[in-house]
Amino acid sequence: MAPSAKTKTYEYEARDKQGNVVKGRMDGPNEAAVASRLMANGGNPLKINEVKTGGLHSDIKIPGLTDKIPLKDIAVMSRQLATMINAGLSLLRSVTILADQTENKALQGILLEVRAEIETGASFSSALAKHPKVFPPLMINMVKAGETGGFLDQTLLSVAKNFEDDVKLRGKIKSAMTYPIVVLVIAIIAATAMLLFIVPIFAEMFATLGGALPGPTQMLVSLSNFLKVGIIPIIIVIAGLWIWWSRIKHKKSVREKVDPWKLKAPVFGKLTQKIAVARFTRNLGSMLHAGVPILQALEIVGETSGNMVVEKASLDIMDSVRRGKSLTGPLSEHAVFPPMVVQMMAVGEDTGALDDMLEKIAEFYDAEVEATTEQLTSLIEPLMILFVGVIVGGMVIAMYLPIFNIFNLIQ
Fold it and tell me: Residues near 12 by Cβ (< 8 Å), separated by ≥ 6?
């Protein structure tokens, strides 16, 4: 995130409507913005000084953590803003209230900068566009359409609903993946602890008794000896691979190879497809309903789909529309879109209610994603329990195999 200006804290003295001198603190990009806010609230600024913070009193900022703005916060902001505008408050006043009440410091700073842009005469959409890492292109273009059509409050409600549905969808996916990941991590930690601390004790005891160890036990001891010297390099290699992957996974050349595989992956491929269709139809329906031109909407929906297969399908649809042909014609050529989706979109296109039909498709696939994740969870739970049992139980059996011959070794 690279804001256009840093938010600072200012101490002020101002005279209120009753003539009383009041003091306080306020955040803003500059003194002029703070003075403007004070006057908007009915005050007359007397003194404004920047607060120099440092040492123990300065805020601790961790890049990627303290400056993170979740999509959920953007959804809440959009709904609150729509409510205030619908109630008759001006856009400037609404943004000021949001900046004052939000608990996310990073979002507060961005809203203050947006407010400063609006004060200089910029439109709301252009102010949002200066923060592309915070406000998605979908939101910026829908807000622009709402400003042009004079129904900004309704557009913001659509944005909020879209983001809330997307957050809910992501939550379902995380809930399905959390259990197997946690169990897998616990199994790895348990196996590593046994190899590093328990197996060496048994190995030393067996060595003092002499005799040949059974094959599984010898394999376990060898693995333990390797892990003693290799645990640090293994951790370094895994961390390096993680960092390397996090840097290249968003490159187009990598996504062109990985994204198609995601749709064909066993077990999770169908879930990935349903998520992609739900996101595509929801975003496209929301943008068309807000009045965004269809070509522009298709371009943005393709970029924000999260899958190169869907993005290529969007480009094909754009080419078809430019040539004056059907919107849904190219969809049948892409396997990511089931026949039902193609037919429903074709009906919506013929009847002039494509945005409503897209919303119905998105709702259907949201329910499908929920049902699929529940099925996967019920299937994965016993498999993961069996996996942990095999790993830990196999290691325990391998360690105790020599015990059966221990009396012969003692004699």
Answer: 23, 24, 25, 26, 34, 38, 45, 46, 47, 48, 49
CA pair distance 314, 278, nearest whole angstrom: 14
Contact criterion met (CB below 8 Å) for 343 and 329:
no
Query: What is d(CA 229, CA 117) in angstroms, rounded to the nearest whole number?
Result: 58
* Whether the predicted model's global pTM rises above the 0.85 cut: no
Which tens digit of pLDDT belongs to each residue from 11-57? Answer: 888 887 777 777 777 777 777 777 777 787 777 887 888 876 544 44
Cβ neighbours of residue 159 closer than 8 Å, sequence gap 6 or more: 75, 78, 138, 139, 142, 143, 286
User: Tens of pLDDT along 224-256?
Assistant: 888 888 889 999 999 999 999 988 888 888 888
Under a CB-based contact definition with an 8 Å cutoff, are residues 62 and 93 in contact? no
Q: Are 383 and 267 in contact (CB under 8 A)?
A: no
> Could you tell me the two tokens for 227?
């892990």
Tokens read off for 17:
């409507």
The percent of the chain in helix, strand and coil, each rounded to the nearest 5, is 75, 5, 20
What are the residue ranges in the chain where pLDDT is below 70?
1-7, 52-67, 209-211, 404-411
